[in-house]
Amino acid sequence: MKNNKALNFLKEHNAVVIMILVFVAAVIIASPKFTKLTNLFNLAMSIGTYGILAIGLTFVFIVGGIDLSIGYQVAFCGTMLVILTNAIGLAPALIIVLSIGLSIGYLNGTIVTRLKIPPLIGTLAVMTALNGLVLLLNNNSGNLSIKDTIFGMSLPEFYRLHIFGFLSPSIVIALVLFVGFALFLKYTRPGADMYVTGGNREAGAFSGINNGRLTRIAYSICGLCSAVCSFLLVSSLGASTYNMGDGLDITAICAVVIGGVKMQGGKGNMAMCFMGVVTIQVINNAMIKIGLHSSMQSLITGIVVILVLVLDKLTSKKAVNA
């Protein structure tokens, strides 16, 4: 029985597994720099940081939504974190920023469920508003440096801290969230109901499931994850920048899609999310080590995502026909 489960999992994620193996093999051959311990540690840090953002987006996908504002949620929360930390200290600032992240997520969920605005349009509007706020707070350019410390270390020192010799704070936080939210989805009633909300909203409503409330919870979790990600990004830089959210939405969406989480809703889990994050970060890191131009990196990433979507479409058709 266990072997059947393993085979089904590999079959369902064959594209991801093959791409990971091929890319790792290619990079090891093309660039020994990839396998250096320093690079692998940096890779783990990026997997942790961006993995947290992908966790939140996975919840939104499961309920059949999308959130284009996550990049600027990170930028806004990061900017607020620096401003508040310099004024009142890191601990209270972090609590406030986590609350801000939750509130922005809840706002997105409210726009989608109560105002009945399509997620694509509603979150795009929120993204535009947050972009404007970030530019205003950063005086349209430049960085805002953070002055506080954590455990006697500067934030960049904390971000690059070696825990047990090989773990970083970002990967530890990400693993805790991955495990915690995986248990939530598998063993709680709201977690199970989210799949019904995303897979068959009408049937969910007929069976008494509050689709609107679950959708707002999913978007709130996404906002919270964006706030946590902002803390890690600010820690890595020692500052917030007006453009720190650029491209984060695309990175997170690519990771979640590559992992096999369905944009249509009703299917996805933390294992899929984690595999997608590892794949996209390995690909990005590999291209950097090989020395590819940024334009080529974007092109290859786009091609990979398209291939995964095509394979997913073909396998879905086969499953239906079978």
Report how far apart the termini are: 21 Å
Question: How large, in whole angstroms, is the Cα Rg?
Answer: 20 Å
Using the coordinates above, name the CATH class: Mainly Alpha
How many E-type strands?
4
Overall pLDDT: 85
Helix-strand category: mainly alpha
- The appropriate CATH architecture is Orthogonal Bundle
Which residues form runs of ≥5 with pLDDT under 50?
318-322
Q: Please summarize the sheet with the most strands.
A: 2 strands, antiparallel
The tally of structural domains comes to: 1
Order of strands in the sheet with most strands = 1-4
Shape: globular
Q: What proportion strand?
A: under 5%
- Using the coordinates shown, work out and report the CATH topology: ABC transporter involved in vitamin B12 uptake, BtuC
Instruction: Tell me the series of helices and strands, N- to C-terminal.
Output: HHHHHHEEEHHHHHEHHH
Number of helices: 14
- Percentage of residues in helical conformation: over 70%
